Amino acid sequence: MTTYVLVHGAFTGGWYWARVRALLQAAGHPVFTPSLTGSGDRAHLLSRAVTLQTHIQDITELLNREDLHDVVLVGHSYGGMVITGVADREPHRLARLVYLDAAYPVSGQNAAGGFAEGTGDTLDAMSAAGPEDTSWLLPPLPLAAYGVTDPADVAWVGLQTIDHAGRGIVEGVHQSVYDTLGVPGGPATGQTRGVTGLVYKSIHGVTKVVGKALDVALAALIPLLEAAGATPDASAQRETVLAILNGVMGDHLVASGNPLATSMTIRHQGQALRWDVEPRPAHLQGAQGKVLLMIHGLCMNDLQWTAEHEGQAVNHGEAVAAALGYTPLYLRYNTGLHTSQNGHLLAAELERLAQNWPVPLQEISVLVHSMGGLLIRSALYYARQDGLTWPRHLKNIVFLGTPHHGSPLERAGNWVDTILGSTPFTEPFTRLGKLRSAGITDLRWGHVLDADWQGHDRFRRKPDSRVPLPLPEGVACYTVAATLASQRSPLADRLTGDGLVPLRSALGQHDDPAHSLVFARDSQWIAFNTGHMALLSRPEVTRQILKWLAPIADPVH
Fold it and tell me: Taking all residues of the chain, what is their mean pLDDT, rounded to a whole number?
């Protein structure tokens, strides 16, 4: 038997050796993997007083207190500095020194000098970039710098580099995503139900811990989600996870350049229309001059237009397209961005469609759910402001459960919790205020324009200060509103609604006439005993849309 003492490098701890320790112990060798002062399980002891000499003393004390002899002393990375000092003090207890990709210093050389040329300058720059009171601390390097890229390894290593509060967030995100994708994710923790709640409660770096936990979680999710999708079902689940992530923190993903951020695309038959790559897409053969564009809501994607009712698939858009001769198209977009940001993007995207459509474009009609209604109003406004051509073709907009005047649930901070579910584990994070994407905070009052949010603190509670924007002229507008109640009442209209959107908000009604959206009486329809998401699956909704959009037959002479 050989006694091993394994000394870790910077930014880690004794935990780092867990897998190596298990292998050595299985072979019958005694193994010690101490954490140096200020690291790992001893991170609470970190202070300016901790130096290389402290770490040398850590290992020296271990050798003496355990009375170890004939030790193979292994140092990884910075640990090479430590074992060199230990060997100078306790040579009689050592059988061998092993430098594992480690600093191999000479007398008088510091840690930076033991690494590659220029490392010292890099470390000095990293230190100088920090706040004055913490400039003596060095932030950990990205895991990729160590060659740690496997999703399981990223998750495991990342969990050890944050404290307990952040660890729970990461564990919850990972476990929930694994469960959603149908990927084995280890034993359930009992804290990880509801990917939405866990991600939603841990965005925007409200605290240093939360921000760090989020970065770790996302680093692990990128390869996981990229690898998912081998089957249609798995692919759909992957897209669901991405839609949720973008809904609750899409603005953060864009700002940080994260590849998980969803780009806006118009899609047909599951494929994005990329006019710059394929000006005449093959899958558009047989396209009609009439286009029906479907726009989803918060935390959703284009695939979720297909719902189920009593065991039967329901897709309002596909049914309407087939009955009335439209080519059905779907928008996929990042619902975490400001509505007006998406409005500018959609205006440009529809202009590309209008310029490249393979047959003469006769009509564009739009079917929207929830947030999608705010988006099309924004896009149309900016398209007309910019003199684009596609609004000339826009004939109909059908709104399903659109919060034209916002939702009280966003004002209470629990829109996402309500729409997609949460977990008791997320409760401690409800006290952290700035936890909602720009798209979600736009739902407070139903923001549509840049002026509605620019120059304002979006987390500050304030009265409705939107710029009034009426329904567009020259476009037939219809609205379907839902209520969980069996009949109308003042309470049901203003508060209950469909569980997310008050009935009056969906109908465009407002106490201030300047904000009221005037839908014709026969252009309104109320679905009773129906929730917000159930609007996508009710066959009666399909029938009502067909009734509105079906061309009026010419009178018989």
Answer: 78
